[in-house]
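Supplementary material to the annual report.
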Amino acid sequence: MRPWVYSSVLILAGMAHTAMAQAPAAAGEELFEQKIRPVLVAKCYACHSSQLKAPMGGLTMDTKAGLAAGGARGAEVVPGKPSESRLLRALSYTDNNLQMPPSGKLADSVIANFRQWIELGAPDPRKDAVTAGGARTPLKGMSIADGRKWWSFQPVKELPAPVVKNTTWPRTKLDAFILSKLEENKLKPAPEADKRILVERAYLDLAGIKPTYTQVQAFVKDSGPNAYTKLIEELLASPRYGERWGRRWLDVARYAEDNSTSEATNPPFAFAWRYRDWVIEAMNKDVPYDKFIKLQLAADLIPGTPRDDYRALGYLGAAPVYHKEPRLSQEVLYTFATDDWDERVDAVGRGLLGLTISCARCHDHKFDPIKQTDYQGLAGVFASTMRAERPTRADIDPKLETRYLWVQQRLFDINVMAGILANEKQTNKEWAAKKLEGMKIEQQKLLAEVQTLKDRYPELVAHVAKIGTRSAPLPVALQADTNAATPGTAVGRPGRRGPTASDEPFMNSVYDAALYVDGKDPFMTEMDYRPGEARDLPLFKAGNVANPGDIVPRHFPTVLAKSEEESKFLQGSGRAELGDKIFSDAAPLAARVIVNRVWDWHFGKPLVGTPSDFGTQGDKPTHPELLDDLAARFIANGWSLKWLHREIMLSSAYRQSSAPREEAEQVDSTNKLVWRMNPRRLDIEAYRDSIMHASGTLSDKLYGPSIDFDDADNNRRTVYARISRGRLNTVLRLYDFPDPMQSSPGRDLTTTPLQQLFVMNSPFIQKQAEAFAHSVDQEPDNPAKIRKLFETILLRDPSPKELDLGMTYLSQSTLAQYAQALLSLNEVIFWP
Amino acid sequence: MTTSRREWIQSLCGGLGSVGLLGSLASQSAKAASLGHYTGPAIAAKAKHVIFLFLTGGPSQLDMFDPKPILAKYAGQRPAAVSGFRTERETGGLLPSPFQFKKYGRNGVDVSELCPQIASVIDDVCVIKSMYTFNPTHTQGKNLAHSGSILANRPSIGAWVTYGLGTENENLPSFVVLSPNTEGSSLWRAGFLPSEYQGVPFNSSETDPEKMIRDLRNRQLDPQAQRKQLDLIQAMNRDYSDSFGPDSFLDGRVKAMESAYRVQFEAMDVFDVRKESDAIREEYGKNSWGNSCLLARRLVERGVRYIHLYPSGAPDPIVRPDWDDHKNIFTSLQTRCPNMDQAAGTLIRDLKRRGLLDETLVVWGGEFGRTPVSEAGDGRDHNPYGYTMCLAGGGVKGGMAYGATDEFGFRAVENRVSIHDLHATILHLLGMDHEKLTYRYAGRDFRLTDVYGEVVKDIIA
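Predicted assembly:
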């Protein structure tokens, strides 16, 4: 790292700052927020922050005061005078002794922004906490009052389309917003993509599979004015749409079928696939987004909900759970329970509200207007919600079901505890014998109670009899009568601790029951579930369960609630009220968050660069008016995702070519202004599915239990592959599948050599290549075969040169080897 | 024969490519480095590589490195000083170690008769007797040891290190995991770091590279035929790039395919410990421990940044494969230690012989240690309150015992070193300030050490 060189001239120059800053142009402030601050955060704070014990060169740039004061070498910014500003000299890399950031020179366009900002008087709209001479002070989050003014919490309203010069380009309203910014920056939108590219783009986007050559030709030849609209409608009506967009949602919902360890107390979720199927079905039915979420949070608490929709509760019922070894102390297990609740708060916070509420677990949020009490107010909801394997059948009395769910869990726990005692060499034999005897009596009583259900609900009895068989075997001493008939069978090969899907008539779900961790017995800590009871948690000082403070009523985060009095959750766990509040009080935020995600999934780049963080540490939207207008109209159109797809996909912005353009890249190298469609790499699902589709090996069966990704007989779409938290499939992992331990804000798609080994050498690719080659057996000769293969996988005819290359290659190699080469091409995995 | 094979492969990489681009790619040095993301202040450091020997289950410090003669005096009793101790499972009286300890090396560091090979290189080893961590269970303890958090979603230290420093050899993964259990694990996850930094697991229960690495070999084409196929692919890729225009993904994938082609042969070579002389293989031991440690040395020589080993298996199937000795601990240790000791001792000796020990930090230990009180009469329970880990090379002082536990070996009491302190020290030895190696995620800057960690300066040479 190069030293910052001392300059006394600039200290004097820095004194002009105060006077100049009296008249900060609004444009300058906006420029700071949009272009300057993000760079400071990303490139400078690491070494120049007031949070550091010893900021480099004594310079802090994360506060207004620090930046104005400059560092040990003097002022950095001389407002109005770029040429005299040390900062600009450092950025420009012209001085060998003064070059920042050390990681490399920033883009010229970024440096130009800094120059412009300094020319505008370097206005700095940041509000510093009161400090003494830039000294290190503890971070304090935003107040609730200030927070209520935060951009992402403001109401959304439809805005007039901006006036643009080029009036022929806009097709849907969002185009005007895009074009207006492009024109401001003297950029032209890209021409419309080729029809062949367009139809491929739409298929991959909505169906997750490439079209067939016939489908491409039909579209290319259809010169009718509604050809493209018709195409979008067909795709939205296809069941493939739900498989594609359901999977998108499952990333956010951190869907998986087991736990990272899957030990005795947190075995795999054998029925999680029913949640996945529900998501696919809901997408296909275009269940309004607000209802879609409310069902996932509280289907069981919303009156009139059909039993089938209880599958939605897998969002909570198959959420990650930590193992709770009964031999651990009450304090340790209580902490694990709070880890589970924290995961739900985070999933709802970042996933649904775009807020890092989880940051307020141990203290008030350091940046956002979220108090620790707000965190605990939500955690209480999940402390009052217990996971359970609920029967799918609808004709069951709710009271009876609740009792059954409790008995089922209690029998499960007894089995685990008895298993420990049976497998352990006892030191305290007297205690163990007594404990075991007590559990045996309780178990027999509960089993007898379950037996009374035998005639009406035989599957419930059978299910209880199976407790222990999926994880630790039932200790002999406690063997229950397992002769009851067992409807359904386990599907798939049981992996070692891996998830095994079952088609027995149950769902991984939740019901209202408060969880307490019972430490009465010093040798064995027990989970105490209290059905129908809800619990308000105490504030845990510094997040420590051993240090409880005042009880916090369950409530919706204060900054989002319309009124504090009405923010409390009073019905049961509060899950239903939570869902209601998200779509009433916090509707603008919830709408912005999902609209931004959908935009991201369509364009490959979101409007807000941090899709799960709309707080103060997240990015600001590149097109705030567009986001607001689209969110407002999304709500007005009944939270319909299919409406949103149409609005986006029918736009001119979406139909742009993705070809690179040098002049535009110089102005906006990351395409924030949407001067073209972003070219992308296919995700693993679309890649695998498209290869199999071309090879003719892909089944179009909808729904059903999961199957191992690597299973040689797996001909299902990738969305039906088993997803494991503990043993995530290697290929999924290599291709950037998100870690299902936490809600994913989006996938970072990488390109690595190990991915290519899968394409070059895997039995999968060889099998597909052979099937692909066989699919052209009917063709008379090699040129015809080559042509047919090209049509199928590349959706176009080969060029004479390609034909020539192919013929030369085939003179020494097999057709399957040639087919594999085609499947491996960049053109196949690229999504222009 | 081996050299001519290598030359032949090189000729395939460079010679047959009729396309200029490919020729220039193939002739690039195999040791092309990728940049790191660490932007904090530079710290003068010797270590460039880490080999972490992880003893899953929690090895017994009381039987290897931390002698407590007083246990014999109170054998079977539970004196007042330890009576209130809450262990994970039910425990009884104090259990003395039956193993003889001696002082080794220039400074007289305690090592028991279970580890004669480590004892023989003790002048290169720093034994930290005062480790402590924050959870008595395996999953949470292992998460802490790997990521500094009890949660199962934070990046592993190997991911942090390779994120910070990049790699020296782009033909091999920068974070290699050698484990008999390769199907994904939370322990080598990248968490919220970009997925390219996740550990790449190789099955260490095999010695044939083809069986260690998924899809490493093409079962249908020989290298020449495969080269021909790749030439066809790349020729078409190049035409596609020409028609589309400059694009970083298209360029990147062309390069990645070339790398993959080379990885096949490089890995077949690097990952094959059978290419070592019999004498060396015998010195390490021809078993899971020996093979893994020898392979780790070969990977360090090729520029792999971080290697995490989870050797497993005991020579006798009646003994459990990991170090979680809740019962029958003494026979188990006697059965399990020789392979571990021989491999670990040889690794340190061999690295030194080759001049690699200075730039390679070897870390030895598990997620916690074990209790001085007995479980089930002849076992020891989990003990996160005071346990031992060893460091060697990479700029660490050798011949040193650091810190101490209380007189019974229950809690670390002197110069206590938390798991965060250890992580901070490892990063420091690699030239990074643990407070400055950060990643912005979910609205804040995350660190391996969270808000904790002090570098243990006393053990740095």
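Chain B touches chain A through 88 residues (CB under 8 Å).
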